[in-house]
Amino acid sequence: MTQATGRTPAEVMFAADEASRGLGIELVEHGEGTAVLRMTVTPAMVNGHRIAHGGFLFLLADTAFACACNSHGPVTVAAGADIVFVAPAHEGDVLVARAEERARYGRSGIYDVSVRRGEELIAEFRGRSRSVRAGGGGSGTEDAEDGVRGEGARGAREDGPGRGGRDDTARETPGTTTKESR
């Protein structure tokens, strides 16, 4: 909990997340390294096949990941993420994303998120996080130790090959399907 607001770091971050809240995503529960979020698939979220667009499923899982990895306090952003779509979701479905921390090491972490409709698995997401150094947010300066641009929660997602940052993300495992490989 922060003394100024009486809210946890995950609650503070989620309260400022206009994109997720604008889609009706709700923070159901959270704890150290965990988060559970809920979203109802609306008519605006279905694609031409009349199933939930994968981007909305990714956004739900990514938001659960963000709440879980920010539960520890320092501002933490995504270094990379993959999703596997297991079953389609449809208009009116209530989806629940449960994020769990798998490992934290140094400023990095690994989190798994399962998206379900009731007991049925819809998607599995794996996110890799990176905590931003104090004072690095928003400055646009290079972190002398590791060459990663310190642009805070918004700019750090854009770092990677060709953007001035180092690509430390894991490579796609043969035989898996990710949003990028489809």
Mean pLDDT equals 80
Q: Assembly state here? A: single chain
- Given as residue ranges, the uncertain stretches (5+ residues, pLDDT < 50) are 137-182
Q: What is Rg?
A: 16 Å
**SSE pattern, N- to C-terminal:** HHEEHEEEEEEH
Strand content: 25-35%
Backbone structural class: alpha+beta
Number of helices: 4
The counted number of beta strands is 8
Arrangement of strands in the largest sheet: 1-2-4-5-6-3
Cα shape: globular
Helix percent band: 10-25%
The main pleated sheet reads as:
6 strands, antiparallel
Query: What is the end-to-end distance?
Result: 41 Å
Features:
two-stranded antiparallel sheet, disordered C terminus, alpha+beta, 182 residues, single chain, six-stranded antiparallel sheet, globular
Question: In words, what does this structure look like?
Answer:
By secondary structure, the chain is of the alpha+beta class. The protein has 4 helices and 8 strands; from the N terminus they run H-H-E-E-H-E-E-E-E-E-E-H. The strands form 2 sheets. Strands 1-2-4-5-6-3 form a 6-stranded antiparallel beta sheet. A two-stranded antiparallel sheet has the order 7-8. Strand 5 and strand 6 (120-131) form a beta hairpin. Helix 1 (9-15) runs antiparallel to helix 3. Residues 137-182 have low confidence and may be disordered.
Would you spell out the secondary-structure blueprint of this structure?
Elements: H1 9-15, H2 18-22, E1 26-31, E2 34-40, H3 54-69, E3 76-85, E4 94-105, E5 108-117, E6 120-131, E7 141-142, E8 149-150, H4 152-155
Antiparallel strand pairs: 1-2, 2-4, 3-6, 4-5, 5-6, 7-8
Helix pairs in contact: 1-3
